[in-house]
Amino acid sequence: MTAPEIIVLEDAAAVAADAVRRFIQVCSRGERVNIAMAGGSTPKAAYHLLGGPHSGDVHWGRTALYFGDERCVPPTDEQSNYRMVKDALLDPLLAKGIKAGHVERMEGELDPDEAASRYAGKVEAVTFDLVMLGMGPDGHTASLFPGAAELAKHGVALATEAPHLGVRRLTLTYDKINAARLVLVTVTGAEKAESLAKAVNGPPGAVPLRDVRPTQGNLVIVCDRQAASRLA
Length: 232
Ligand code: 6PG
Description:
This protein is of the alpha/beta class and 232 residues long.
């Protein structure tokens, strides 16, 4: 279990550009790659670049896109992570006649426990080459929220609850995330500095992101100066 590699860059634009570079690097291995996409505005900035100026830098037919988490809403809902990835990446690629090799969304429109069970069945045998994550100001990542009972649960995919939001979510478990070859976390903004410091330097359980520590793979956290301001 290696320590996280921390990359501190000037601003959010630089963070998005670096995430794109790493995404392209993972996809340049000349074989099928399995990638779990993150929700959130920080990852979204990278998706826009991948669907736009960098759309030609990935052999999309060799990518299988999954999701690290999802809101319990239909795929057409503006809250849906799938819809966000579709709008930012999949549709712009399609407009250029480009399709991902495979897209497997979490079925947010179903009963959460049923959706989690169905997704677990689909990804149980998948080893992710890349899991993209963001982090909220409270240190949550994917839909692993502070204080949620599911943090301790093992398995592949779970229905959980965002306690402060009072809504159900679907999420990959720590087990599944930590089995990835590379976990790439993008974090920007001063409001995340305290939680990022806990995620990097705190004890296990300090915040949910602290317990993302790939067992065999690598963890890279790319952040801007504001988010890194509390790192030693
Ligand atoms: C979600 C994500 C969540 C997100 C973080 C960061 O569904 O919103 O899974 O974990 O990545 O909250 O979001 P921002 O980048 O928008 O701050």
